[in-house]
């Protein structure tokens, strides 16, 4: 019984080992097939047949996603065609599935190049940092990292300047709105109109005439008095000289009338006198 158990155990072990060998062989064949697809894709890229090259790379990724060359080369193919969004996705896929530092370095380096093309400088800085973590000796990556860092600083400064300009514009708009609001309030405020009416009334005398005109008249009167040495009669009034002349004329007239009456009396003729209204 014991011998039978040992024989069964040995048989099972042998079968399991055989299955593992078969799986390993199958995996090896899969990887080889994927690499063949990548190789064919590379040949098509050299011939600038990017469409068919893309198809071969996709076959490689579908067959064996662990074959980093499929995603990496497909990303390069998209990059050559200017399809940067898809190229970035494929290189990110390659960086995720890569198992060696060399593969990761290449994927992150190319991601940095793509991000620089899209003018995403700060993101490119991070991609180059990851590339340098996997290979700090690569001169090209270090150079690109410095360029990306300078670009990121310039973009940051431009963003700050734009933000300051926006704040200044907002302040100017607020000030203009406040000024307009104040102007509208002045136009619509009845108190201002009353004050204006009062002011206009202050400029007039009791007779409704402007005070300035009254003052000017008084000024002219005083000026004439200074020039002539005599008061100037107001409209509708007689000067003292005119009154004197008028009285003398009336006296002369009365004397003539009296003389005439006396003469009539002498002739015996009765004269009727009338009042001078």
What's this entry about, in short?
The protein is mainly alpha-helical. It contains ten helices and no strands.
Question: What does this 3D model show about the protein?
Answer:
Residues 268-277 have low confidence and may be disordered. The protein has helices at residues 2-46, 50-63, 68-81, 84-97, 101-117, 121-134, 139-188, 190-202, 211-228, 240-267. It has 277 residues and is mainly α. It is rod-shaped and about 200 Å long. Helix content is 82%, strand content 0%. The protein is built from ten helices and no strands. Helix 3 packs parallel to helix 5 (101-117). The longest helix is centred in the middle third of the chain and has 50 residues, at 139-188.
Which descriptors apply to this entry?
277 residues; mainly alpha; 10 helices; 0% strand
User: What is the strand tally?
Assistant: 0
Helix content: over 70%
Q: What gross morphology would you assign?
A: rod-shaped
Written as H for each helix and E for each strand, in order along the chain, the element string is HHHHHHHHHH
Average predicted local confidence, pLDDT: 77
Q: What is the C-alpha radius of gyration, as a whole number of Å?
A: 59 Å
Tell me about the largest β-sheet.
none
Strand content: under 5%
Instruction: Give the helix tally.
Output: 10
User: Kindly, what is the distance between the CA atoms of the first and last residues, rounded to a whole number of angstroms?
Assistant: 177 Å
Low-confidence stretches: 268-277
* Helix/strand structural class: mainly alpha
